[in-house]
Amino acid sequence: MGFGWNFDNSYARLSDTLYASVGLHPVSDPKIVIFNEMLAKELGLSSDELQSEEGVQILAGNKAPEGSFPMAQAYAGHQFGYFTMLGDGRALLYGEQMTPENERFDIQLKGAGRTPFSRGGDGRAALGPMLREYIISEAMHGLGIPTTRSLAVVSTGEKIIRETDLPGAILTRVASSHIRVGTFQYVANWGSFEDLQSLASYTIIRHYTDIPNSDNQYLYLLQEVIKKQAELIAKWQLVGFIHGVMNTDNMAISGESIDFGPCAFMDTYHPETVFSSIDTKGRYAYGNQPKMGLWNLARFAESLVPLLDDDEDKAIEIAQGQISQYMGQFEKYWLDGMRAKLGLFDQEDQDKELADELLDLMEKNQADYTNTFSALTIGQHEKSPLQGKDGFEEWLQKWELRRSRQTQSIEESTELMKNSNPSVIPRNHRVEEALDAAVNGDLSVLERLLAALADPYDYSSEYEEYCIVPETQKRPYRTFCGT
Ligand SMILES: Nc1ncnc2c1ncn2[C@@H]1O[C@H](COP(=O)(O)OP(=O)(O)OP(=O)(O)O)[C@@H](O)[C@H]1O
User: Fold this and answer.
1) Where does Mg(2+) bind (predicted)?
2) Is 170 inside any structural domain?
3) Which value does ipTM take for this structure?
4) Which residue among 418, 436, 462 closes a domain?
């Protein structure tokens, strides 16, 4: 069986400082839990063959696919502000699959066993968190937000030891690359100048092909990465996504969202919302994400300093100049997105105020973020979580007046809103319900949830049950880092 593999291992050719080649750690009884046939097709892979007995061996890390070069990538990172060496401690990169469209995607197994970067860990992952990453990454894709994807989750047939024994699993992750801010930090700290230069040049070739080949190309790289992150984080904010662990090793240079450990979507709007059990100080709270993006990008800029100018002072000044652009860019992306959520095509100075007033009303009244926008979209104000609340009528009038001042019709405006306001998001209680059922062998709940999340801007009533807000919970919802 050929499976459709078409590997090109360009990262392996770059510099062996950047990775450690690794052997396989077979598991005893691998079985497919979920498989993404649409994604397999996009990658040029045969779904039937990959789901066969031989295919499962590949997805479990028991047998390397032809042409692959199994490796663990080296990287470092600031975790909650503290710098440390990291690297793939439980992930194995098979290589880069070249698709029929000649696109390049990393194929990585997460949970595939120990590597030279494992430190004290067992290199393994549990079924619940790997399915969670599958759900959220596919939900992000459905929402149109750049993200790594999930091709499959296999159960290993083995238990992993945590606080309790948990069923083990391996996720096949697909990414346009796994180059992180932390990869640059690693090379800037422990690699040579040539390593840094070749990583930066490689990143340009792989992700930023529009950058001109000039003396300034690393400056352009910094500029483009800043822009991509400003755009990405604006998209997170607009759908109420909270990443939960925005460490520098979890910021991908490609501009894709990566590592869906303790992430979750916000129901009730509040800027201080935190779900992660380990984020005790709220460093990565919803409202802090833009600022944390800036902090991470400053670390990226620091890593690039040797490439920006021979004169260090001048290089730092250049880096600072670029970093200072970020907040303005973020705000612009955010406001453009907010205008679309409110059905506005053109720009007026008071638009930010209009949006902020709505957010204030949501915060004051503990309104559901997603449902506030979807009620506006379908024009059923009686369904709005803000209906009957002080100030909402006045706000509606202001908004309707603003909408009527543009040349586009109300129908066009509504269409724009439908494409900008998801009716379905992966609500925490729904995700938990799907995971519980799946871990107990019933995949139907997960499959239905995934079907709803594939088309989150569909306002038909088919998946209406996913729009229902959970009853107020006694304790706040908590997520835990990837077990
Ligand atoms: N069970 C484990 N065994 C070995 N290393 C681990 C284990 N769990 C996490 N790590 C390592 O600890 C570091 C931080 O973990 P974190 O949970 O942020 O990453 P991850 O979810 O494993 O990986 P990724 O960022 O690729 O999605 C990483 O270097 C990771 O490889």
Assistant:
1) 250, 259
2) yes
3) 0.99
4) 418
Q: What is the pLDDT along the chain (483 residues), one digit of tens a residue?
A: 899 999 999 999 999 999 999 999 999 999 999 999 999 999 999 999 999 999 999 999 999 999 999 999 999 999 999 999 999 999 999 999 999 999 999 999 999 999 999 999 999 999 999 999 999 999 999 999 999 999 999 999 999 999 899 999 999 999 999 999 999 999 999 999 999 999 999 999 999 999 877 778 999 999 999 999 999 999 999 999 999 999 999 999 999 999 998 999 999 999 999 988 889 899 999 999 999 999 999 999 999 999 999 999 999 999 999 999 999 999 999 999 999 999 999 999 999 999 999 999 999 999 999 999 999 999 999 999 999 999 999 999 999 999 999 999 999 999 999 999 999 999 999 999 999 999 999 999 999 999 999 999 999 889 999 999 887 665 667 777 656
Q: Is 191 marked as a binding-site residue?
A: no
Single out the residue in 389, 418, 447 at which a domain terminates. 418
Count of the separate structural domains present in the chain: 2
C-beta 116 within 6 A of ligand 1: no
Reading phi first (left if > 0) and then psi (alpha if -120 to 50, else beta), residue 296 is in alpha
Residue 12 inside a domain? The answer is yes
Given the residues 106, 195, 249, 279, select the one marked as catalytic. 249
**110: in domain:** yes
Q: Which residue range(s) make up the domain with 142?
A: 7-175
Cα 272 to ligand 1 centroid, rounded to whole Å:
26
